[in-house]
Each structure stands twice: as structure tokens, then as C-alpha cells.
Amino acid sequence: MEHVTLKNKRTTLERADKFISPIYFKDVNLRGRLYKEHHPVKSITHFAASGRIPFSQAIKGKFTKAEVGQSFGPIWSTHWFCLEIEIPTGWKKEEIHLLWNSNSEAMVWQDGNPIQGLSGDYDRTSFPLSKAMGKDKKRCSLYIEMACNGILGVGGDTMIGPPDMDRSFTLSQAEIAVFDREVYDLILDVETLHDMAKHMTEETERGYQALYTVNHLINSLDLNDRSTYTKAHQIAEKFFQQRNGESQHVMYAMGHAHMDSAWLWPYAETIRKCARSWSCTIRLMEQYPDFNFTCSQAQQYEWVKDQLHLIGMTLNIDQKEFVKKGRFIPVGGTWVEMDGNLPSGEAFVRQFLYGQRYFMQEFNKKCTEFWLPDTFGYSPQLPQVMKMFGISRFLTQKISWSLVNKFPHHTFWWEGIDGSKVLTHFPPGDSYEMKGKVEEVLRTVKNFKDKGRSSKSVYLFGYGDGGNGPSEDMLLRMQRIRDTDGLPKVQQKTPEEFFSDVEREDLGNLCRWRGELYLELHNGTYTTHAKVKKMNRFCEFRLHDVEFLSSVANILSMHHKGSYKPPTDELLRLWKLLLLNQFHDVLPGSSIGMVYDDAHQYYDEIVSNCQKLYANALPGIFEGSAGPDPLNMVINCMGWERKEVITISTTPMGSPAKKQKKSKEFVQHDKNGNTLAMVTVPSYGYALLKPIKRNDVYCTATMTSSSYVLQNESIWAEIDHLGRIKTLRLNSGTFRNAMSSETFGYGNQFVLYDDIPLFWDAWDVMDYHLETRKPIVTSIKSAEVLDGGPLKVSVIVQLKISDQSSIEQVISLDAGSPFLRCHTKVKWHENRKFLKVEFPTSVHSMNATYEVQFGHYQRTNHNNTSWEWAQFERLFVRSFFGIPAWYVMCDEEVERLYEIIQEANHVLADALFLVTMDCSAFFGEAAVTKWADRKKLSPRTASILIELGYDSMEALSLLVENDLPSTIPVGQKRLLLHSIRQTFPRGLAANETSRQESSATTSEAPVEVHADPSPGTPLLTEQVQGQSSDKFISEMLGQLQSAQGSSQPTVNTAPTLDQPGMFSWQDPQIYLKSLSAPTSSQYHDIVDFVNLAAASQSERVLSNNEDGQLVFKSGPSKPKLENISLSQWSVANLAILQKLMQENALSPNHMLDYLSYTTRVYQLLASYEIKSVFFYDREYRKLQNLHKFRWGTDIPHIQTVYLKPRVPSAQQNPTKSVRPTPSGQFPPRASHTPQGSEICKRYNTRKGCYSKQCLILSAWEDELKHDPDKSFILQGIKNGFHIIDPSLSPQSVEMDNHPSASPQSDLFAKATVQILDEISEGNYVHAPNPPYYLCRLRSPKSPDKEADMGTHTFTYAIMPFQGSFQSAGVIKAAYELNNPLDVQTVKLAKDVQESKSFFSVDDPQVILETVKKSEDRDNALVLRLYECFGGHTKVKLTVELPFKKVQRCNGLEEILEVGKSPKLEVIDNNIYLSFNPFQIVNLMLEF
User: Per the residue annotation, which of 260, 374, 418, 1348 is the catalytic one?
Assistant: First the structure.
């Protein structure tokens, strides 16, 4: 009788596992039958090579006998073996493999060609001999190149440990064997069934089916009877052929061998790793036609191509053939898989430029997906850079490594800071080296965060990091599960197929992630190996400068038929070296020491060659012949004029400077004997060294008993004997200290921390290190003054860190400089310590602004949520985002002010506006206190806000009639209060209503107020309608008329509405239309109420008195009103309202709604002449809808009022030079036009003016003192106004998450602090509240035990400023700190032009980042510009070179099609460009 056994899941699973185990029961299990017979090779001989040598050289070496069990070394050495193989007679029809295991990486060679890579680490120890056998299939000769390193290098105690210099590698196996493919297939059958049974959930019936099937398979198999093998395989095959449904998740499997270009091995070994990995891949492609392989990094393709002598010709040929077939797939589009945060924006561009060009030239393929799976975070500007190169898709998986929070998506839209979006996918298996196993595919589906939105994901398989790639095991596993019930579908596909299929889904279902992709791990990589980071930034600037000079020299040489030839090939080579060093394990500092030996060699080569190229190009930028006398020329490679102190070496100065050298009015000599001078150099140009007089710039150093005071015209700093900053403030009459007032709240305090992470030594800094703070307070030598001015002052301090380490720092301040500079030299010999410099400030902020590539980005300053806590290093300024590095903090109270501004102005969707009205005359102390308490502000802050007009209308809503000054007429009091309450109903509390009612006792009829009236609610009761309403109007009219003094307005109070010719023009610019008036009513315009006598046909004088004329210009186009006084305009508008009320076209509440909008304008304009009046309908209609107006206008011009301050002519002194404004810029003249004499014509178009720049009125008080001709544009918005200055940079940034608008007032002047970092050595700022830190040096011991040991020099600066960081010039200051003016001695003719600008931009909002020669055309230049403030603007780019044509191009320097890019406006040598926030624009100039 048959007995049915009850199955125990655990024992059955373990039975299956042991049945295929390579360790247990091999003598009786299936694994032990994999190789039926073994036979030794005939002979093994060995040659120890002197290095990595080609095959042709190796076979000439002296080979000696070797044997199994012999060890070889040292690490990184190369050994060659020659194997003579003879096949036993009985093996003729068998599949024969060579089994080789040297416990290292190796390559099989035959006839000079690489055949297949081997690795003891990943059990890739067999090589099929079928293709290697000779014609008789009996014998063959093979060579094996053995590398004395493993897949992941030669670490000692751990994988990432420093290289074990004593390690050797033992040859443990060298034989041939008969491979049993039937057994191999059965092993994979059992493994797959076992894994399904083990990893599918208990609730899944399919898992139990797999369990019983694998048990049945084992029972049916007799290892001694081969006839049972087929039956057993059929059992498994039947199970796997049970198909999935149509709704199953689909995994797009792609072979991949993630290959670090350097990490735990040097660059040179990566070349051979590519050969070993790619050869394995090509062998598999020959055998499995559906297998596809993805491979990134153009650098590695070029290595393989250029090193054919080293790795063999056939590999390159085979690889190219499979690329053509679409199976060996270049991906990524970059030169290497670079770091995602540290390189500059231009370096990002070059990664894509040279990567895409290589793939296009070699394979005629342009990548459409960016491939960066292993980088430690991703800049928020990457989406825009990607799209510049035709890439709209992105793949990575590294964010899955985050320590605390799980990223919420796997397939989503990633949006950059400019609004560019790319389709992004994170493989949900959280790995780029899957093995084709059941557990991985189940984990992939389980992890997938976007179920329901998408049903597809990527599955990357193949050994990675050190290469090696897919194996046959992986391919055969996936064959079994490609469409098996209970598992997701697994299909061999390409990246193009995956993204295209996703795009065919409903993309509107996908979520959006805005901003950076932040990795909550590996934060120490922004500091480790500081010198590498310093040299990276330094080389980026050197290449930038050389490209500019050589480009200009080339164009001028062509123009003058000179002999200069641009160094195109050499610059390309140097750029590629720099880009290679930006690989994501090199620049971050996480590689072994050998890598940094190579990296610094490349940096030295870049610097030395750039110096030569710079010197060769320099004479070519000076037009004219060479002369006998050497002249000192100052070169400015930045896109704006610079005025600063330069250092001239002790070499003799040129003749122009000799005459001035003796005068202290021009120069200063420092302690080293160098000459200091203040110079001015134009944008992207040069100037003859002529030190300028110090009229309004200075600096001094004063020593007291306990400190040193350094100051110039901008900054006042007090420094103690340890170099700590006790006080730092602006030197402009404000006395708020930027440093903390707490005890020991010193700035520039060096501190030491313990730095012991959990595992990833060079990578990680853990949060608990912050608990180990130890301030450095021991001085080696007393501080002393080095330089005493007047152009530079400095103090030197020396500090002791430990017995082995010390600090020497020079703190300096230059005349005219906005920042205090700290140049530091550190002797550093510590073990797992972290050196930082601390800045506890008086700033309290919820957010901070950091530079990123081509822009800036905000992060929070608190730890409210786990996302913020996990980013505890987010507040460390990453000194290498973008070219310079900077960081901004503002007061938390200031942040609250931003909220108030937004509340007061009903912020439009993506804009931040400022209310600018001075209502301070209506407030007493009680009102200020009341409003301050409501807004949770200090009374002082509230008072300043009220003076500035911030939220003043809401503040007024808290007042009652008796709170207003008695000097205000009763009618105006009531009118003002009612208008305010209608505009700001939320400001009126219910408990204040009765007080207001009881206090409203006047001779006029009582006014009853509705508390918190809803929009459209009548403000007046029946008591005050009718005749009472007329009294309000009459009183207001009288007040306005009285304001004209003795002048009497020529107002026609009772015009005839049907007067012939009254409306002889078309489309009047200002009118009111009564939608409720009888059909017989006509338009009412200002001219209806002004005497029209003596008017000509083309021009009518509407009013003429001491305040000016009101002139109407008629015609078919837009007419204009010019020279209308405030009183005339006010009276005319009120007369219109009065007339409309008389006709019952408007009710009193409609009239008061209008006045609630216009009264504020009248008050604001009290001291201004109205030069022109335009309205813009859009904003006015919003107000109309909000308050239920029953009338409105139909013309889109209720927008701007052009103003000029009413300054007596006697105060104007045209001969007096105009001083710069507090922001450091000269006040602009009256308009947007270059001449500054008229309104920009675009203000009179439906599109509106291009300028979006605003500034509050009170900020211009100082400006008006220096420039009485200053003019403004006043813009109307919903419930307030803001002032636009036509030339300054915008304070309102059109980004809903970036409140960068801030008034330039005393309140804000002392509330912002800026940290600048010069090409520094891997540093970032930590900014809790307070203090924040610059992280200078680390001392990890793995994988490089000597990391950062030695002497370091670095510079940083701290910059207090007022207003916004945009208007304060923070961005420019950071560039200037990184790239000082350069003094060069050149032999030129005496008549050489003394100064010259080749390129300039008229607006600091746009930076001309790059000037370079076109990649393919010698007669063309490429200019790259970007908007750096975060707003909209239009700028003028001036090119002082004879260009013939200019066109927009993409990142690949391909001309954009007409109609697909904004049209360029070119006038003479000026190019006019419009920019969106953070937009990058590329131009191609043809000469």
C-alpha cells in the first residue's frame, strides 16, 4: 500500500538546497556530477612580466615551468602562463572546459586575441575549449594573463581596506574537464524551483506548487541512470511553462557590468578589466541571440580602442559589430559616470558634450538616456543639462542606499530648478548587479512604489563595480522565469524599449519630484581627499581662462590674417583628463592611494599645459604689433567689470607703473615685498596696469588690548588673538553684529571632532560625531598685524591642533572688498578626526540658499522631519556645486516677513511681490504694538515694516477712527477705513467692531461698518447712501483740489456727454465702462472732465497749470497721457466716479471699492510727477472679480505708472559725479532704453515689458540723494504695488519655493550672512541655528590610509550684506574669490589700446559662463550664458569682435531649428536675449 508523506516545508527546502550544494554531499548530489572527468594540462610555463605589457611582448618573455599550488605576486603585478593542452582520446564528442583558478583576475589569449576573462571571485573559472581546439580537435596552446588583484582590488582586512602589500595569489586549479550540460540544466531547474518555494509567501499557492515539484523532480532522478535526467527536466519544464496573465508586472532585463573607472584599483587596471568583462559578454552574445548588454562611459570605449596593442584587435572589432546590431548598447552619453554634485556646471556640459560626440562619431548613436547608477546624489540642475544634449530619460539606483528614508517613487518625472523634466527610473530591485534569481524578481515587484501608475521596471543583471558582467548562469535562470505563473514577466530588452513602453503608458499618472535627488549617506565625500577637490576647481578655472583667451586670439588672428592656431586637440585632451578625474569614486575621495597618484599627475599636467597655452594665446588678444617695452596687463576672464586689489609679484613693473610706484596714493607693498594696487578691468577683457587713486576706498587695521579691528568702507570686523571673529558688521551706520551674542559665540572658531563611521570610512560621516566637539584654543604664537593698509590689512594667527598638527591663518581685508578673507595653512597628521571652522551667527533662519551648477537651491535649516534630520549634512555648504561656492542665511524673523509679504499681496502662482506703501503717518505706538503681536514680531520689526509699507493695509484694518490723527479730515478717515476693510476683511476682529461703531461720532451721518464683510458686501448702510455719499465725494474732491495750492484745476464739472467729437480717437488708453449703465451711456474718460479748449487735431492740451500739462495725443494707435499731475489725475478720476454715481451707473460701494484700490496710489505718488499713465487689465480684472466690481476696463494696460521724483531743480547738480548705490551699483537712468531717456516701447504692447525687476520705494532713499534723476516704474498688483527699477536685478524671483525678494532696509541690512569658499578642498557648511560650519579636513584610513595627510592650504571668506544676495553681488563675489585678476607682462607697442572688453552683459542677472571655440569650426565661437538669480529677464550681450551671424544651438553645438527657439534680436554688435529662471542659453557666433 502506497504511503503519502506529509511534507515539511523546511526539510524539503533544505533537501533541495543540499542536492545542488557545491559544499555538502558532493559525492552523492547533482553538483558533484557537473564535471564527469578531469585531466591535467600537458604543461604550464610562466613568465613574470615587468608590468602591463601587450601580448606580442609577453610571448617573447622567458617562460619557466610552473605548477598548481604555486603562489605569485606582488600585488598589481602581471604574470603570463603558456598552457599546452591535449585532449584524451575518449573525450572527442564531449563538451570540454579549461578550469583555471588563480584566485585573481585573468584573461585567456589565443593567437594574439583576447578570448574570455576569468575570475576566482565570481566562480568564473571555466573556459569552453570548443573554439580553441585545432582542426584535429586534439590539442591547442593558450596563454593566460594573470593580474595579481581580485575583482575588487587587494584590500586587507576588509573589502575597502588599504591594499595588502604582502598578499600573493595561489594557482589552485589548472586542468581540463568534461562538462555535463544535462546536469547543469538540472541544477538550474532545482535552484529555480527551490527559490520559488522559499521566497514566495506562505499565502501563495504557487510557492507550494514549486515545493512539491522540486521534491517530485528529485524523487524521479537517479544519478546513476542518465535516462532519468530527461524525465526530471521535463517535470521542471512543465512547471515553468505555466504562463502568466496579461496584467503581470514586466521586468526589462538588461545585461550590465558596472565598471568603476577607478576605485580599489588604478586607472590602468580598468583598461584590462574592460577587456576581461567585454570579452565574456561577447562570447555570451555569440551563444544567446536575445541577450543585450548596456555599457556606459565613453572613456572606457576610447581606452579599449586606443589600447588595442595591449588588449587585442579582435575585441574592438567584435564589440563594434554587436553595437551595430543593437545588442551591445552604449548608454549614458557622458565621458565617465561622474560625481553628481562636485563638478562645475561647465564640467557637466563637457561630460555630455564629449561623451555624446564620441558615441556619435564611433557608433553613429546619440544616447537618449542618462545612466548614472552609482553616484552619491544628483544636482537639481542636471535635468536641464541633460535636455541640452537630447537626453530626456534618466536611470539610477543609488538613492536606494539612503540611510533613513525610502524614496517614494521608482518611475517618475524629475524636475530641475529651471522646470526641465526628465522621465526617471530607479530599478526597484535596488541594485545594478542582479543574478537572475527568483528572490530578486520578487523583491523588485514588492519594492516598486508606483504600482497602478506603471507596470514596468528595469532589471539590471551582471557582476559589477569591478566589472565581469553577466554569466551564463544568469541568462539560463531568466529563461526559466521569463513568463512563469506566480512571477513577474522577465524579458530581455533594451533601455530604449523600456522607456518607450513607459512613455506609451499614461504619463499623466506619474508623480513629480522637484529639486535635487539627495542621498542620505556618503556625506563625508565632500571633504575627503581635499587636495583633489581643490585641484579640480583650480583646473576648471584654468581651462575656462585658456579657452576664452585662445578663442579671442583665434578670431583676431583670422581677422588680421595672423598665424595663431587654436589648440583644439590639446584642450580636448586636457578636458578629458579633468573629466576622468571627476569619476564618482575619484573626485569624492573614496579610492585607493594609487588612484590619487595618477589623479595629481593629471592635474599637474593640466596646470602646466594650460600655463603654456595661456602664454601662447595672450599676445594674440592685443591688437597691434609687438613692442620693445614690457607692459603689465591685467586680464579679467569673468563677464563683468571688476575693481579690486591685485598682487603684483616682486618682478619689475612695466613702464606705466614705474611712475606711480613711489606714490602711496596708488600702491602698497605687503610683507613679502609684493606690490598691491587697486585696478579696474573691463568684462572679459584686459587693461593696462594703471593703479587708480584711493578716493573712496580704504582699509585700516587697529590693535587694542584684546583684539584687532579690520575695516574698510564696507565691513567692520573685530578679531581676537586666536583669529576668532568677535564682531562682524556692515560699516554703513548699522550696528547689528552678524556673529552670535551668546557666550563664546565667536566666528571662525576651529573645532575638532571624532570621525569614526560605521563602515564606509572615506565615505561616511555619522550624526553622532557632532557630540564630540573640541574647540581649538591653544595658540603657538601671538597674533600680529602683517599688513596695515591702505589697500590691504591682515592679521596672522598660529594655532595648535595636536603635537602633530597645526594651523596658520592670515585673515585679511582688501579695500573695496565686500568680504573678509581667511587664507589657511594646515599641517594635518591625525587619525579619524574631522577639522571644521565654526560660525555661530545672529542669523536665525528656516532656510538657506546654496549654489548649484548654473544656479542656486534652497534647503531647510531644521530637523523637523526624518527627511530633514537624515540630511544633517545638508547645511554643510558643498563647496563644489557650480564654479564658486557660496551659502546664504537670513533671519528667521526675515523668513516670517516673507510670509507676511505673501499674505499681504495674495502671491500670484509663481511670483513674490512686495507691497510698497508708506502708511506710517496713520500709526501710533498702540497700533504698532497691536499689529506686532498679531504677526508675532518684535515692535521694532513691526515699526520698520509699517514704515516700509509691508502689510500696512492689514495693519490699518486693526485701527478705529479715533486712532487716526486728528489732522486727517473726517471724510478721509472714514473713506480710508472702509476701503481698507473691504480690501482686507480678515484683519477686522469681531470684538473690535463695537468699539469702532461707538467711536464713530462726527458731525457727519454715522457710518455703520459690517464686520468681516465678504467680497461685494456694501460698505455703507442706507443711512449714508444718496446725499451722504455725495458728501464723501465732495470732501475728497475738495481735499485733492486744495493740494494744488493756488493753482485751480481746469475741470469741467458738468460735461456734455454727447458733445460732438468727444471720442474721435480709437481705443483710448484709460477709460471706465459702466456695465450696468443704460445703453445710451457712453464711455467716460478723463478728458470728459477737463477743458478741451485750444486743442489741435493731433494733440490736445487737456490741462495747463504749475503742475504741468495734461496732453492727449489722438490717433489710430495707442494714445498716451503725458505730464499729468497727481492732483489732475486724482480729480479727474473722482469726477468720473461722481458722474457715474449721478447717472446711477455706480453705487457707493462700487465707488469705495475703486477708491480702496486707488487711494493708496495717490498717497504713494504724493511727491512724484506722473510722467505717463498706463494700465494693465489683467491685474485689474483680478481685483474686480475679488470684490465683485460691476464695471471694469477692456484694454490690457492697467499696469504701470512712470514716475520721476519731484526734486527741485536747484538740488540737481549735473556736474557732480554719481556715487554708487548701497548695493554697489550705479543708479540707472530713466528707463530700459540704452540712452535712458524714454520708456521702453514694449511697455505699450500687449506682451508687456520684458523687465520683471522690482525694488521697494523706501530702499531708494539713499539712491535719490546721489541721483536726483532716478526714475521708477510703479506696477499695480492685487492689493498693493511694487516699484520696478529698470536696470537692477530683480528682487522678486518667479519661483514659488524661493523667497529671494527682500527689501534693502536697515532691518534686512544686518540680517544676512554669506559664506564663500575658494576652490576649496572638499568643504561644506553646516548651519543649525546656530552655529554653522565649514568642514575642512578629514583623516579616514580606508581605502587610503594616507588620505589627507600632509600640508593643506585653502581660502574661505565671510560676507555680510544687506538686501537680497542677488543684489548684494554674492554670486559675483564667489566667482572673484575663486578666479582672481591675473597680471601678465607682455611686450607690446606703446600705442596699444589701454583697455578692451570683448564680451559683456548689461545685467548681473545673467552670467556669461563660457567662451570657447566651436568643436568643429575654427571660424565660430560658442557662448554659454545662464540666468543666476532665479527670475525672468532680458539682457543685452555686447560682442566686441566682428561676428557675421549668431544662432542658438544646443549643448552638442547643433544649430536649433527655426521656430523651435526664441528669435534672436541683433542690433550692430549687440545681441538681445530673454531668459527664464536658471535657463542656460547656448549661442553659436560665426566670424
Answer: 374
